[in-house]
Write a structure and sequence with these properties.
By secondary structure, the protein is of the alpha/beta class. The protein has 15 helices and 21 strands. Helix 1 packs across helix 2. The mean pLDDT is 96.
């Protein structure tokens, strides 16, 4: 049974993601990743329920559980990475999804998200009758209370904390009432930053705004940054593995622009010669990295894919355009609080964020969505690819076609019967026209099949 999507198993809690599913998943995870599993969750209303059922499943097959409580996903991953006796981990979260959703994300013993082969082993066991152990051999639960402090302390050690303290920064932090409500304010305090926190209560219904940190959801943060004269606005998603930024003048910094700005800073600071991003990333990153003498390595979409590619190719930095930032100096996973700390260091080193943003080359990206049944996705991709055989084509993830003045990406959704069509160019009209042309070609191709 196929259960894992791009980021774990997700569904509406107490419907698809039931206690029965969590119990059976716990047994399977214990068999594959056990015998010592660290677990954490975000603030969702149903997280305790799912965590309890999953823990019961783990213990029933003899697996010991270390319960870290409510901490960000990267805090759990760092704890696993730094405690070698731990053989794997589970994060109970649905990240940016609406509050009725929850999810189960599995972590390997090195602190990275489980690769597909480990997920498949868990899925393969799900439909089997997984044997439990005798009553004397069941696992136990140990409550861990210092994971948040350890996470913050590790981040502080990786940046120029003394210079940040001397700078007298003011920031506004939007925790989305999620897993960062303790850790990011704690981090700002440790860095000597004056921080004003909004949506800082662990309310799993996300009453402040939806937990996806899009520009539309961050109007209050943008206003407060301007009204308070803050140097920076920081916003997290529900499990705080991502962060996005608001410049001091109230402008929303796109994920692509943040990748470019931080790439430039880190290449200067740490050296190295490459940054790893996905095929859906704006050329602003490649242009900026090239100006620093570096190269960009492209991967398929998915933070575990980017993380493993970075580890293999030696990139110092990487990420996705949704605010997922990965720092090789800290750990190979998306790390929202680390992103916040490095951005402060970047402002200190490179100057105010509005000026850095204005210094980037300008690209225009248009995104469209088209319906496509799952069973026809590959066929449609093959058909359109053959129509453009004389172009520069990349089939790493869907179909990307590069032109002299931009690119187009047609990428199938991994969770919905949809295709996403991206078009980018230095010219706005070209980007818009090309997006429409490929949308029409896609729909025409699909209608013939």
């Amino acid at each position: 049974m196929r259960m894992f999507g791009t980021n774990g198993v997700r569904g509406i809690a107490n419907e698809y993601l039931s206690c029965e599913l969590a119990l059976r998943m716990g047994r399977c995870i214990g068999k594959v990743l056990g015998p010592r599993i660290a677990m954490a969750c975000d603030t969702r209303v149903t997280s305790d329920m799912i965590r309890s059922a999953l823990s019961a499943g783990l213990m029933s097959v003899g697996t010991d559980v270390l319960d870290l409580g409510v901490v960000p996903t990267p805090a759990l991953q760092l704890y696993i990475k730094e405690h070698h006796e731990i053989t794997g981990g589970v994060m109970i979260t649905a990240s940016h999804n609406p509050p009725e959703f929850n999810g189960i994300k599995c972590i390997s013993g090195d602190g990275t998200e489980c690769p597909p082969e480990e997920e498949r082993r868990i899925e393969d066991l799900y439909d089997e009758d997984v044997p439990t152990v005798g009553w004397k051999d069941v696992g136990s639960i140990l409550r861990i209370s210092n994971a948040a402090e350890d996470y913050v302390r590790s981040i502080v050690s990786k940046v120029d904390s003394e210079s940040i303290k001397e700078a007298g920064f003011t920031v506004v932090v939007d925790c989305a009432n999620g897993a960062s409500v303790e850790t990011t304010p704690m981090l700002m305090k440790e860095l000597g930053v004056r921080a004003i926190t909004i949506n800082g209560n662990p309310q799993g219904e996300f009453p402040g705004h939806p937990s996806e940190p899009t520009e539309d959801n961050l109007s209050a943060l943008k206003k407060m940054v301007v009204d308070l004269g803050a140097d920076l606005g920081i916003a997290h998603d529900g499990d705080a593995d991502r962060c996005v930024f608001i410049a001091g003048d109230g402008r929303y910094i796109s994920g692509d622009a943040a990748l470019a700005i931080l790439s430039r800073h880190l290449l200067k600071k740490e050296g190295g010669n490459s940054v790893t991003v996905t095929v859906a990333t704006s050329a602003v990153v490649e242009s900026t990295v090239a100006s620093c003498g570096g190269d960009v390595v492209y991967t398929a979409v998915g933070s575990p894919i980017v993380s493993r590619a970075m580890r293999d190719n030696g990139s110092i930095f990487g990420g996705e355009e949704n605010g997922g930032l990965i720092f090789a100096s800290h750990q190979y996973c998306r790390d929202g609080a680390m992103g916040a700390a490095v951005m402060l260091e970047c402002i200190l080193s490179e100057g105010p964020l509005p000026e850095q943003l204005d210094s980037l080359p300008r690209y225009y990206t248009v995104k469209k969505t088209a319906y496509c049944p799952d069973e026809l996705k590959q066929t449609v991709t093959d058909e359109i690819s053959s129509n453009h055989a004389d172009c520069k084509i990349n089939r790493m993830d869907g179909l990307r076609i590069d032109f002299d003045d931009g690119w187009v990406l047609l990428r199938p959704s991994g969770t919905e019967p949809k295709y996403r069509i991206y078009s980018e160019s230095r010219d706005r009209d070209t980007a818009e026209q090309r997006a429409q042309v490929f949308l029409e070609e896609f729909e025409s191709t699909l209608s013939r099949l």
